Amino acid sequence: MDIQRGDVVIKQKRKRRLLYGASAAVMVPAITYGLSQLAPAAPTVEAATVLTDTVKRGEMLRQVRGQGTLVPEEIRWIPALTQGRVERRLVLAGTPVQPDTVLLELSNPEVEQAFQDAELQLKAADADLVNLRVQLETELLNQQAAAATVQSDYAQAKLQAEVDEQLGKEGLTSELNVKRSRVRAEELLTRNEIEKKRLEIRAESTRARLASQQAVIDQRRAVYQLRKNQLDSLKVRASVHGVLQQLAVEVGQQVAPGTNLVRVANPARLKAEIRVIETQAKDLAIGQKASIDTRNGIIPGRVSRIDPAAVSGTVLVDVALEGALPQGARPDLSVDGTIEIERLPEVLYVGRPVNGQPHSTVTLFKLVDGGDYAERVQVKLGRTSVNTIEILEGLREGDRVVLSDMSAQDGINRIRLN
User: Fold this and answer.
1) Contact 364, 377 (CB under 8 A)
2) Closest by alpha carbon to 91, among 268, 262, 265?
3) 298 and 393 in a common domain
4) What domain range is 317 assigned to?
5) Are 238 and 103 spatial neighbours (Cβ–Cβ below 8 Å)?
6) Residue 139 CB neighbour total at 10 angstroms
7) For 78-107, what is each residue's pLDDT tens digit?
8) In the chain, fewer beta carbons within 10 Å around the N or the C end?
9) 274, 400: one domain
């Protein structure tokens, strides 16, 4: 049965409705405004996917790193001295060789014929010298005999003149005989002087003609030696102690003078050739310490040469090895090189972040709230090394920062590490 409500009840119900409506009208805008003022929730990043490091203070070792190979310090390319055809390859690459080890045999009929011609011409010149020496000695002896005859005649004429003068003084001979004896003696004196001159000239002529013929022999001997060397060069020898690294020609191949045929190296004396990025090479200097990792041991060394030119963005650096070579070290072995530039005492440093460039200002995420969150901070960087970088401003000792690439969080100042 329906019970009729009174006016009081109806009025109370209407008041409650009005009160609820007014409250809703006030609270909805307030809640909306409050929600609009809340910061968006920090995005979550898996902590296991990021690399972090702690800022430290102390000595920082600056290093640069590069890749390269081991190369022999003593490398000799042996070229072809004459044109020829490769007939035989007697030694394979990797074989130890001595200076007189024959590596290749070449052939060239023209060289062989030229050697024979030079040999015959030298023998003919030697025979001509012997014949000329006999001829000149005979002529010289004849000249000496003629000079001796004139000298004997002069001595007799001089003696006769002295006798006639003595007889003339005693009146035993005429004055005419005395004058005749004197003139005869003077004539033979002149002839004796001339014969002496002729004998001296003959001797000088003999020496000159023998010297001329000897020059011909020397010239032909030089040609003979040249042809002999050319013939010997058809047998290509190592000429040094070492290991045959490369044979650059095949059997049957024609080679021209100057063509590199084989490469011989001394495997006991190796150096490292390291390529360093040109932006990191500006601090390199001769004498800096280095270590070469052969993946079977680390060899200490020092920088011995820095190439003045950059190639393909890298600078070639030679490292002289100072330690014993590990087992398996050989030419052309790939190695990693680390060069010590300097030691920085008492500096603030941290592991090198992905975007960390020397003397730049970057933003890094610093861990806060016990490592549950990370906030973006601005950091000024200084000098760099292979794995570390100097901190100038923005961080303190003990701070932990994210070193990984955080470009996916660009525009976000706070992240949560889950």
Assistant:
1) yes
2) 262
3) yes
4) 47-71+269-417
5) yes
6) 13
7) 999 889 999 999 998 888 999 999 999 999
8) N
9) yes
